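# nightly structure sweep
# worker-07 picked up a monomer target from the shared queue
# config: single-sequence mode, recycle default, output format = structure tokens
# input follows
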Amino acid sequence: MDKILKNSDRIKLVYISSNGRSGSTLLEMLIGKHSKCFTLGEFQVLPIDYLHNTQPCGCKKRVENCDFWTDIINQNKNLIVNGTISKFRNYGNGKVIRWNELKELFLNFSASDYDLIKKYGKENFLVLQTVFNKVKKNKDVYYLIDASKDPYRLKWLAQSGYFDLYVLHIIKKPQAFVFSMIKNEKNFLLKWYLTLRMSIRWIIENIIIMKVVDKYIPQKKYIKIKYEDLASDHKGKLKSIFDFLKINDSFESDQGFKHFNHAISGNKMRFKMNSISLDEKWKLEMGKFFIFICVLITKLFKKIYN
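# output follows
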């Protein structure tokens, strides 16, 4: 696809991609404390939260009552209400399997509608440009942080040519991810089925993310992060991330990650926790049988993710 904007005119967007419940909210909140960064949360959910009041803004107000987002929405009402920003997200999660996108990624089929990709990129760009201009009035922001996670959104943003993308791919141990998805299920057979399904999902989603990166993102603009490393040594991991982004490390010395923000959607932990610790409840509570199933299914793929 032809480049639409010069590099200097593109918005510098740090995109956090991952499975759900893999630490993306923690990561974006930590990075968002840096003076050069402004976190958007899961930006693609903005139209849904505005129209249907599904989750509050990071400031704890409903999006329609948040002064920050009200200003942005008023300037871009048609794009947010009738546009394509939430294309890859519904009321729940995005789809794991989108056949047209996968055929293009893995079989080089020209399956995507490039006019729609350009439209998608432009609509996201126009709204995010309004955000960027607003935050620049009070803060010397260099990057916007989008924790939307979805690899198909990443693919379309990259193909559109409107963004200078830096990708943070956060990966949680498959046992920990699967446990987070099955821990409330009491029925043994359904829990077994969900363990199988979520283990396969862990594999598929991470492979798709890596394929999108391999095809559309320069390697120098991609970094892989283990959730366990981030939670165990967040200061050390943040230093490597800030080095990757080429910004000085100005992370505050306290142990918390909460700060005033206007992040859209994300894990509700952002309202409840102020300390960072490695959660490994799966080791005690998941059960050896379900751990065995998960490890067996994902074993062949572990080397890919180091």
